[in-house]
Design brief:
The protein has 170 residues and is an alpha+beta fold. It contains two helices and eight strands, in the order ααββββββββ.
């Protein structure tokens, strides 16, 4: 009789331990918000101030006169990572045939007060520099003709582009 009671105690203890463990583990998955009906979200990582300064839409001088039919080129700059940007260059395509198009990624090369922030990319077997300073983007290359490849009619990606307050209108 004592042996049966000891065996029963062991089974009861094992069953109780298993039940408590199961309840404890299932409780870990039940996370509730401090405020009812408010989803729990992970905080977003803020972009570095340097990236916030360069990300945006830029356009050449012709953009201001687009309503009069002037041709223009716009540049969309988006953060790819903390040291890399995604660049899309497009010319007007609403009432004219598109004359320029470029898609690429550029890597941070350096930053200082005199030159601003400079990114570098490889395009058409040449180095392309994207310099951001005082809300201006300057696209340049040691091989000026390399940037003509992306435009028709004698155009080039090389030049200065002003940062826009609003999004580009294509």
């Amino acid at each position: 009789m004592i042996a049966s009671l000891t065996r029963f105690s062991r089974v009861l203890a094992a069953g109780t331990t298993a039940a408590i463990t199961t309840l404890s583990l299932s409780a870990c998955n039940n996370v509730t918000s401090a405020m009812p009906n408010t989803p729990i979200t992970q905080p977003e990582q803020a972009a570095a101030p340097m990236m916030q300064a360069v990300v945006g839409d830029y356009a050449d001088a012709g953009y201001e006169n687009r309503s009069q039919g002037y041709d223009w080129v716009g540049v969309m700059v988006r953060a790819e990572s903390d040291r890399k940007i995604d660049i899309k260059v497009r010319s007007r395509s609403d009432i004219k045939k598109q004359t320029c198009q470029f898609d690429g990624k550029a890597t941070l090369r350096g930053q200082d007060a005199a030159h601003g922030t400079i990114f570098e990319a490889q395009a058409n077997d040449s180095t392309v520099f994207f310099q951001f300073k005082d809300n201006m983007l300057t696209i340049d290359s040691p091989d000026k003709y390399a940037l003509n490849y992306f435009c028709s009619g004698g155009g080039s990606l090389a030049g200065e582009y002003q940062k826009l307050v609003e999004d580009l209108e294509f």
